[in-house]
Structure to design on (333 residues):
C-alpha cells in the first residue's frame, strides 16, 4: 500500500483533500446564499472604473468670435478663433473636434475634447501602499540590523540605547506612534523648517518614518534572536582563524543567522503592509483610505471592500512567494 509523506495511505490523503474541497465549496455557497438574503443590489460592473479611469479633457475658447480656420497637423488640429483683429489658436485632437470653419463661438464654448486614461483610485491606493511598505521595509531592515547588533554590544551606551528604543516602540500602539510622528514631531520639524525658509516635509514621509521606526524595533529583536541562535563555537572558530569580531560577524555569523531570521522577517513585512492601512488617519490615501473614499462616492460597500481585501491578499501573497524564493536561494548557496 502506498503512503504519503506523513505515513498515511493515499486513500487517507485523498479523502481529506476531497473533504477540504467540499468544505470550501460549502463555505462559498453559504456566503453567496447569505448575500442573496439581504436587500442589496450588486453592481460588480462598476468596479473596473476604479482601477482604470477615463478623464475627458475639454478645450474651451477664451474668446468670443468666429472659427477663422482649422488646420490639421497629424492627429491634431489647430483651431483659430478670430474676433476682428484679435485671434487665438487652440490645439485639439482631430477626433474630438466639435466645431467647423465659420462657426460662431462664445467664450467658454467647447472646441474639442480629448480622453485620457489614467490609473483609478484603487490602483493608485494599492501602488502607494506598496511604495510606503517597500521604503519602510528597507529603512526598517537597516535600523533593525544596527539596533540588533547594538543590543548585543558589550558597550553599555549602545546596548542601553538599543533596549530603550526597542521597549518604547514595542510598548506602544502603532496608531499612537503615527499620531506622535504627524501631530507632534511633524509640527515641530515643519515649523522649524518654515522659520528657516526651507520647504516643509510632506505628510507621506512622516507616515513612512513611523512605519519604519516601528518595524525597526521588531526587526532588531528578530536579528538579536537569530544571532544568538548561532552557536558560540562558530565565533570562537572564526577568531582562531585570525578574524576580528567584525569579520566573524560579517562572514560567519550573519550569513547563518539570515537563514533563520528570514521567515519571521517575512511575517513582519506582511504585517507592515496591512498596518499601512492606519496611515489613512493622517490623510495619506493608501489602499484602505482610497477604498473608503470609493465607498462614500459609489455607495457600494460590499463589492469595494471585497476588492480591497483581494488587493491586500495579492500584495501579501506576492511577498510570501518572494520570501520563499529567497529562502530557497539562500539554502542552495
Amino acid at each position: 500500500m502506498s503512503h504519503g509523506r506523513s505515513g498515511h495511505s493515499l486513500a487517507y490523503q485523498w479523502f481529506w483533500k476531497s473533504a477540504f474541497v467540499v468544505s470550501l465549496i460549502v463555505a462559498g455557497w453559504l456566503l453567496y446564499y447569505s448575500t442573496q438574503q439581504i436587500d442589496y443590489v450588486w453592481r460588480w460592473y462598476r468596479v473596473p472604473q476604479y482601477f482604470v479611469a477615463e478623464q475627458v479633457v475639454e478645450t474651451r475658447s477664451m474668446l468670443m468670435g468666429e472659427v477663422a480656420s482649422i488646420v490639421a497637423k497629424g492627429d491634431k488640429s489647430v483651431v483659430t478663433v478670430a474676433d476682428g483683429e484679435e485671434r487665438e489658436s487652440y490645439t485639439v485632437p482631430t477626433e474630438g473636434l466639435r466645431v467647423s470653419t465659420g462657426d460662431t463661438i462664445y467664450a467658454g464654448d467647447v472646441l474639442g475634447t480629448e480622453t485620457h486614461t489614467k490609473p483609478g483610485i484603487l490602483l493608485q491606493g494599492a501602488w502607494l501602499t506598496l511604495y510606503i511598505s517597500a521604503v519602510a521595509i528597507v529603512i526598517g531592515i537597516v535600523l533593525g540590523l544596527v539596533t540588533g547588533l547594538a543590543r548585543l554590544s558589550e558597550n553599555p551606551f549602545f546596548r542601553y540605547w538599543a533596549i530603550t528604543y526597542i521597549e518604547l516602540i514595542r510598548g506602544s500602539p502603532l496608531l499612537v506612534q503615527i499620531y506622535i510622528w504627524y501631530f507632534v514631531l511633524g509640527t515641530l520639524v515643519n515649523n522649524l523648517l518654515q522659520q528657516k525658509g526651507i520647504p516643509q516635509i510632506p505628510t507621506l514621509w512622516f507616515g513612512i518614518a513611523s512605519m519604519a521606526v516601528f518595524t525597526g524595533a521588531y526587526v532588531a529583536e528578530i536579528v538579536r534572536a537569530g544571532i544568538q541562535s548561532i552557536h558560540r563555537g562558530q565565533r570562537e572558530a572564526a577568531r582562531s582563524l585570525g578574524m576580528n569580531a567584525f569579520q566573524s560577524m560579517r562572514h560567519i555569523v550573519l550569513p547563518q543567522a539570515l537563514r533563520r531570521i528570514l521567515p519571521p522577517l517575512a511575517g513582519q513585512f506582511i504585517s507592515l503592509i496591512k498596518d499601512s492601512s492606519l496611515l489613512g488617519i493622517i490623510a495619506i490615501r493608501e489602499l484602505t483610505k482610497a477604498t473608503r473614499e470609493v465607498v462614500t462616492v459609489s455607495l457600494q460597500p460590499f463589492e469595494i471592500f471585497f476588492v480591497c481585501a483581494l488587493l491586500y491578499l495579492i500584495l501579501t501573497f506576492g511577498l510570501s512567494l518572494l520570501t520563499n524564493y529567497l529562502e530557497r536561494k539562500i539554502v542552495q548557496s
Notes: The first helix runs from residue 10 to 36.
